[in-house]
Design goal:
Length: about 475
Amino acid sequence: MTETEPKGFWIDGGWAAPATSERIQLIEASTGDPITTVPAAGPADVDAAVGAARRAFDDPTGWAHWTAEQRRAAITSLADALTSRGEAIAKAVSTQNGMPISISSVTEAVMPAMLLNYYAELAEQQPVEEKRTSFTGGTTLVRRTPVGVVAAIVPWNFPQTLTFFKLAPLLAAGCTAVIKPSPETVLDSYLLAEAIEESDIPAGVVNIVPGGRETGAYLVEHPGVDKVAFTGSTAAGRAIGEACGRLIRPVTLELGGKSASIILDDADLPALLEQFFAATLMNNGQTCYLGTRVLAPRSRYAETVDILTDFARSLKVGNALDAATQIGPLATENQQRRVQGYIEKGRAEGGRITTGGGRPADLDRGWFVEPTVFADVANSHTIAREEIFGPVLTVIPYTDVDEAVAIANDSEFGLGGSVWTSDPERGVQVARRVQTGSIGVNNYTLDFRSPFGGVKASGLGRELGPEGLAAYQQLTSIFLA
Ligand code: NAD
C-alpha cells in the first residue's frame, strides 16, 4: 500500500512533520494483524491545522470569496481525483474497519464524489443575496455567507462517506476545514489528502489531523474554529454539545440510534430480505440508523422469528476483502468485546438466542461475531434500549399497531427506522407516527437530496439535502429603505 504510507499531517497544502512522537497502531479487522503505525496529532499539530484553515478562510481573495462557479470547478477536480482512487479507498477502509468490500466499493468509493458534485451544483444554483419585500413595503437583502472554519470530527464506521456529509457542503458554501479522522481509520484519510493535493482546492482549505478523543476535544474548543460538525456516539456528542453551548459555537451532532423496524401483519418479509438486510444489518451492524429493534406482530411472531433466524444463518460471514462477504468482522477488538458483552446481558435478562451468539466456528482470528437473533425480548431489556453496534437483532412482540408505534417511540433515540407491509400507504401512515429523523417503507435507503439527522438523543441539526448546505451558511439581513 505505497499510496497510504504514513507521511505526517496534511496541513496547508503539504505534509507537515508531527509535533509529537505519539503514534497510532492500525490493525486489520479481519485478521487482527498489525498494519502499520501512523502519527497521532497533538495540540501543536491541531494549532497548525486550524491556523492554516483560518488563514485560508480569512484571505480577502481566498476560497470564501470565490464565486460558487469557481468553487465548483475546484470541487469537481477533487471529485475526479477521488473517483480515480475509489478502489484504493474502499480497500483501505475495509482492511481497517471490516466493512464488507461490496459495501465500501459503493459508499466509501463512490458517495464522496457524488456528494461533492451535488453540493457544488446546489451552491451554484443558490443566489448569494436574495431580495425580499419587507413588512413595511421596503426591501430586505438576505445575504448568505460561509460560516467559517469548520472542525469536522468523524467516526470509523463510514469514515469517508461521513467526512463528505460535512466536507462536500462546507466546501460548496465557502468554508474551510480541519478534519479529525478516527484513530481506527487513518489510511483512507491519506488517500483523501492525496486527492486534495492533485485537485485545484487551494492550500489550507482542507487540513487533516488524525487522533483520538483528546485531539478531538482540543479541536472542538479551539479559538480559531467557528463551527463544529460531529458524527459519533451520543456520549461524545453530549460532551461536544456542552463545550459548544458554553462557547455559543454552532454545532451539528449526528449521534447514536436504536431504531425500530416495524413489521406489519400483512408484510411479505421473505420477499424483502435484501432490503431488510440493508435496513438492519448493513456494515456488520455498525451503522447508526439500523432498525435493530425488530417489532413483530404477536399473530405472526413465531413465523417472523423463524424467517429472521434462517436469514441470519444464511449470511456469508468472512474476510471483509472477500467480494462474497455479507457480514465482516467488527471494527476493533474492543467493539467485539462490547458486542459480546451485550449478548451476555441479553441472555441474562431473559432473551432467547435463536441463532449466533458467539464467534463463528470457522473464523478463529479477527473481530468476528456471528449474526445473532434474540427472541422473547421486551423493550425494557438492555439490548432493546442501548445501541449494540453489531450484527444483533432483537425481536420484540406487539399486539396492535398502536402498541407497535408506542414501542418504537419508547426509546432515548430517534434516528432511523422502517415499516414493512404489503400496503405502502398503510406503511406511510405508520411511518408518520414514529418519532425519528428518517424512516423507510419496505426499505431504508439514505437519500442525499433529503435531510438526515436525529431527534432526541440521536442528534441536533441535519446533514444532506439543501438543509445540509444551510448548516454551513450565516445569514445577514440588510434592510433597505
Ligand atoms: P465516538 O464518539 O467514540 O468517536 C467518534 C469520533 O469522535 C472519533 O473521531 C473520536 O476520536 C472523536 N471523539 C470521541 N470523543 C470525543 C470528544 N469528547 N470530543 C471530541 N471528539 C471526540 O464514536 P465511534 O465509536 O467512533 O462511532 C460509533 C458511534 O457513532 C455510534 O454511536 C454510532 O451510532 C455513531 N454514528 C452516528 C451516525 C449518525 O449520522 N447519526 C453515523 C455513524 C455513526
